[in-house]
Design a protein that fits this description.
Layout (H helix, E strand, L loop, with lengths): L2 H18 L3 E8 L8 E6 L7 E3 L7 E8 L1 E2 L7 E6 L7 E2 L8 E7 L4 E7 L10 E6 L7 E2 L7 E8 L27
Antiparallel strand pairs: 1-4, 2-3, 2-4, 5-8, 6-7, 6-8, 9-12, 10-11, 10-12
Amino acid sequence: MNKYSTLTLFFFILLLSSAVNAATLNSCTVRNTQCSAGELTLFKLSSSTNAHAELASQNNYNYLVCCSGTSLSNTCSASASIVLALSTTTNAHVEQNDQGNYVNNVCLDTIDSNSVTCSYSNDCRTLGPNHQCVAEISSVTNAHIGDCNSPYTIKVCCATFGAGGTTPSRLYLRSFPIIIPADGVSES
């Protein structure tokens, strides 16, 4: 193997290892049971529709909002995105994160350098290909909540993004080798 091939292989492995560890949000599902292995309990509901909510740390409700993906967390760190705000820690009405009436936040975060964004739409796909429906709410504040098949028109949509929050956390590789000379000077 010549020095160019070795260097190209090194950069490919470096890119691949950073992509493997990138946070992703694949989907969120309401379950009337425990979340599956590898899923994150984001918050809990009193029912799958027309429901009240509670923080994941509470133990009053059996319906769990379970999110699959990698490197996800429900902590409310400085880099986290507020999914919804709850009126109390349990038996709560919910509101969008831009309303400011409630102080009990449901947060989605990553444990790597990626970021999360959560917003609201009648169709998460219009926000971009990475946006996943987390739940649906009945209004912007003082709302009931349900799964993504509820009769409500406001979908709670979240997505993970690469460091800096500008690009999706997906890796696209060229199908041909990239040759970088060891001395950093391209050949003429």
